Amino acid sequence: MNTPNLINIRVWGDYACFTRPEMKVERVSYPICTPSAARGILEAIYWEPQMYYVIDSITVIKKGRWFNFRRNEVTSIISLKETQSWMAGRTPVKHISAGGGAPDAAQRNMLGLADVEYLITAEVRTTKLHDATRFNLKKYLEEIERRASKGKCYHRPAFGCREFAADFEWVQDVQETLEKRAAEVRVDKEDKDWRKIWIEEDLGLMLYDVFDVDQREDGFRWFTEHELKGILHEQKSDAAKPPRIKKNTSSDSAIKYFEGTAITPRASFFHAKIKDSRMDCHPDRVKIIPKRGKEVI
């Protein structure tokens, strides 16, 4: 906990559903927030392409309770080309209906969680393409604290599903916050031992993330204005030279505004365990399967 680049965010909400990937039709939630969902919450508050989060641990303040309900979902998706066409006014906007009796509605059951609360501890790291002359880790940490303290976010954090909004606050003193919330949550107001909220349980195989931590370390960065001017100048110089082979370059004429390698999504898992109301998630302490170049057996 004494690592200088660790941050602590308390999150809570009325509903949550951290869908198990093996349940493809009827949604069934994990009993606790997954590391990937925790990362998504933090990235909703603050994220830059030259930094990334590594979830250290998730502490349970409220386990929540199971609940079941049925809702209408849709099978269709809206493509980016369709959206661009609508925005340009070339084609009329087509809505997707999901109400009862709608042609695209699909009624599905969900087994989710109600009234949950966690404390997310995460490590803030910079990527290999990090430009230390423009940004540094201290500035990232200060910006995260400032935004979380004021309740600012790029988009509303959610517990698994977008409609299950999550509230959040910055935590300065972890022990004091956990003891205070434990006394408020538990029936026995004098018992401030937050470790008794969820003493111990083996949760089995759990989704860790859909992006490899090692690949996120490679990162990407936006080109500076000076670099973009240089790229434009090179393109103009190349355009002035007669091409040796005539080809259609319409798809290659776009300017690339960043450098880096695109990450291919691939699910990884770990053996999740609860000990004294805390789930350890750090990749240096838990075994992630598969790692890069390995497959699940």
Shape: globular
Overall SS class: alpha+beta
Q: What is the number of independent domains?
A: 2
Number of separate helices: 6
What is the correct CATH architecture of the largest domain?
2-Layer Sandwich
Number of strands: 11
Question: What is the top-level CATH class of the largest domain?
Answer: Alpha Beta
Major sheet, described briefly?
A: 9 strands, mixed
Low-confidence stretches: 244-253, 292-297
Average pLDDT for all residues = 84
> What is the percent of helical residues?
10-25%
Pattern of helices and strands = EEHEEHEHEHEHEHEEE
CATH fold-level assignment of the largest domain:
Alpha-Beta Plaits
Distance between the termini: 34 Å
Strand content: 25-35%
Global Rg:
23 Å
Provide a quick synopsis of the model.
The protein is built from 6 helices and 11 strands. It is an alpha+beta fold and 297 residues long. The two termini are 34 Å apart.
Describe this structure in words.
- The structure is a single chain.
- This protein has 297 residues and is of the alpha+beta class.
- The chain folds into 2 domains: 6-70 and 110-219 and 262-280, 2-Layer Sandwich (Alpha-Beta Plaits); 223-260, no CATH class.
- Helices cover 23% and strands 30% of the residues.
- The protein is built from 6 helices and 11 strands.
- The chain has helices spanning 35-45, 80-88, 137-150, 174-185, 213-218, 225-240; strands spanning 6-16, 27-28, 51-62, 65-74, 105-126, 167-170, 200-209, 220-222, 258-260, 268-275, 278-280.
- The strands form 2 sheets. Strands 1, 2, 3, 4, 5, 6, 7, 10 and 11 form a 9-stranded mixed β-sheet that branches. Strands 8-9 form a two-stranded antiparallel sheet.
- A hairpin with a 2-residue loop joins strand 10 and strand 11 (278-280).
